[in-house]
Amino acid sequence: MKGQRILILVLTLALALVLAVGLSQAEGPETPQSAAGVERETSAAAVGAVVPIQGRLTDASGSPINGSRSITFRLYDVSVGGTALCTDTDTVSVVNGLFNANMDYCTDEDIDGRQLYLGIQVSGDSEMTPRQAIYAVPYAWSLRPSANISGTTSEAIIHTENWHTSGRGLRGYAMSASGTNYGVVGASKSPSGYGGYFYNNDGGIGLWAKSTGTGSGGTALWVENTNTTSGIALWA
Fold it and tell me: pLDDT class for 231, splitting at 50, 70, 90?
C-alpha cells in the first residue's frame, strides 16, 4: 500500500452549536404563545453525528485505485503531532479512485469551534502528510465560541425545546472553579423589559435556585438593586 495518495475533494463537518440565551419578552404576566397550548412539531430523530468525507485515492503514479481499502480517519486540533481527538476506521469501497465514508465517534466536545485537522491513513501505510485543515462554511461562522448572533425580530433569536420528561431546554455552565463567572446572563435595556423572565404554566415552579456552598458565597438566590434613590430589588 505504500506510496498511495489521497486527494480530499469535499469535507463536510457538522459543527457543534454554542447557544446563547434567548429570553422571551412579555408585558406583565402574559404567557408567550408557545406556553398557551401551541405545540411545535418535533423531529422524528436527531441529525446523525457523523462527519461525511468524500475523496479520491490514487497510487504513487497517480492512477486511480479500485476495490476495498481500510482507511483510518483522525481529527486533531494541531497540524502536526498531538493526540487524535477522535478516530474511526472504515472499510470503504473505492471506484475509479472515488470513495465515500462517514467518520463516527466524534462528539461536540471534540468539534467545538476550534481549528481542526483531518489525518488520513490507508491500510498499513503511515498517516499522510500534510493533514487537511477543516474550515467552517460561512453560515457556521456565527456559531463559533464567542461569536455574536444579532437580529431585529419580535421572535426569539434562539428557540430551544426539549420534550423529554426529565430534559433541559437550555443549560449554561461556567466551568472555571475560580473567579466571578456566570452560567447564564440575561439583560434588558428597556425600562419595561425583563432581564430574565421565567414561568411555569402547569402548577410547577417558575424559578428554582439551589446552592451547596456555605456562607454568602453559597447563596442560592441573590437579589440586588443598585439604584440608591428608588427601585425594587424583589417583587413577588
Answer: confident
d(CA 126, CA 24): 54
Question: What number is the average pLDDT over the span 131-157?
Answer: 81
Radius of gyration for the chain, computed over Cα atoms and rounded to the nearest angstrom: 25
Residues 6+ apart with CB under 8 A from 126: none
> Residue 204: left (phi > 0), alpha (psi -120 to 50), or beta?
beta
Q: What is the pLDDT of residues 36-45, one digit of tens each?
A: 344 444 445 5
* Every domain of the chain and the residues it spans: 5-142
Backbone dihedral region for residue 203 (phi beyond 0: left; psi -120 to 50: alpha; all else: beta)? left
Q: Is the dihedral of CA 70, 75, 79, 82 positive or negative?
A: negative
Q: What is the mean pLDDT of residues 232-236?
A: 77
Segment 4-58, tens digit of pLDDT: 555 544 333 333 322 222 222 333 334 444 443 444 444 455 566 788 999 999 9
At 172, which amino acid appears?
Answer: G
Nearest CA to 94 out of 128, 132, 58 is that of: 58
> What is the number of residues in the chain?
236
**Can you tell me the distance from the alpha carbon of 102 to that of 51, in angstroms, rounded to the nearest whole number?**
5
User: Class of 5-142 per CATH?
Assistant: mainly beta
CB 70 within 8 A of CB 91: yes
Cβ–Cβ < 8 Å for 115, 151: no
